[in-house]
């Protein structure tokens, strides 16, 4: 069972999301919070909290600071940012703070449910309208020698997997491209993240573009 907390300062938004998720057999909304500070307090009392759906702009404590504090805790839940605007500059800050992805509030019911399952499974998720902007933003950065050194620990196959992850391919698509099973791809992704000291696929994308392993002009 995926235990979820919904954090938003609007009652109707919290209740609506909770109703959708609670209707799924494998998801349970165990808490609702009205702002970041409330989320931190309630998260401390929930055992095995899996996913936090976090609004960005809230009073008392915003979603960025709350995310930063949450992911810094032992056995931290994974955070999925919910935002109204796909151009919201705060989204980029939230990803740097440790969020595992973000979803637009105008997303469909099925997209919301799928996002929670994807995040809970240890993957990362970026709303399609913003993925290109995110890549372009980090691709503009100069090469970071300290990040380049992380690539040296990877095998040739793990580099291949990293490139495909950075281009936005799912595990199934990577498996098809490399003629591997999805289980094998998951193993390669896990090893790649562990060796490079990265938390998830969002950070892997940033690494690949900041080191020049992938360039913004390359086709997916």
From TrEMBL:
A single MF term (Gene Ontology): DNA binding
All copies of domain Response regulatory, residue ranges: 3-120
Organism, scientific name: Kribbella voronezhensis
Residues with PTM 4-aspartylphosphate: 55
Protein name, as recorded: LuxR family two component transcriptional regulator
GO biological process assignments: phosphorelay signal transduction system; regulation of DNA-templated transcription
SMART domains reported in the protein's UniProt record: HTH_LUXR, REC
PROSITE patterns xrefs: HTH_LUXR_1, HTH_LUXR_2, RESPONSE_REGULATORY
Domain called HTH luxR-type: residue spans: 147-212
PANTHER family to which the protein is assigned, alphabetical: TRANSCRIPTIONAL REGULATORY PROTEIN NARL-RELATED (PTHR43214:SF24), TWO-COMPONENT RESPONSE REGULATOR (PTHR43214)
Keywords: DNA-binding, Phosphoprotein, Transcription, Transcription regulation
InterPro entries: CheY-like_superfamily, NreC/VraR/RcsB-like_REC, Sig_transdc_resp-reg_C-effctor, Sig_transdc_resp-reg_receiver, Tscrpt_reg_LuxR_C, WalR-like
A Pfam family annotated for this UniProt entry: GerE
């Amino acid at each position: 069972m995926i235990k979820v907390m919904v954090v938003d300062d609007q009652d109707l938004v919290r209740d609506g999301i909770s109703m959708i998720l609670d209707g799924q057999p494998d998801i349970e909304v165990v808490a609702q919070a009205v702002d970041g500070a409330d989320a931190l307090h309630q998260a401390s009392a929930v055992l095995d909290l899996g996913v936090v759906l976090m609004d960005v702009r809230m009073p008392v404590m915003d979603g960025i600071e709350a995310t930063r504090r949450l992911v810094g805790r032992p056995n931290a839940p994974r955070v999925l940012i919910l935002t109204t605007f796909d151009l919201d500059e705060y989204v980029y800050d939230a990803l740097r703070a440790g969020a595992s992805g973000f979803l637009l509030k105008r997303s469909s019911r099925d997209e919301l449910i799928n996002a929670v399952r994807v995040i809970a499974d240890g993957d990362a998720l970026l709303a399609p309208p913003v993925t290109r902007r995110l890549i372009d933003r980090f691709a503009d950065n100069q090469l970071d020698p300290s990040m380049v050194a992380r690539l040296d620990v990877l095998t040739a196959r793990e580099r291949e997997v990293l490139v495909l992850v950075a281009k936005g391919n799912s595990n199934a698509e990577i498996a098809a491209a490399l003629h591997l099973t999805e289980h094998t791809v998951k193993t390669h992704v896990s090893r790649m993240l562990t060796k490079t000291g990265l938390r998830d696929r969002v950070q892997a994308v940033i690494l690949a573009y900041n080191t020049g392993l992938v360039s913004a002009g390359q086709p997916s």
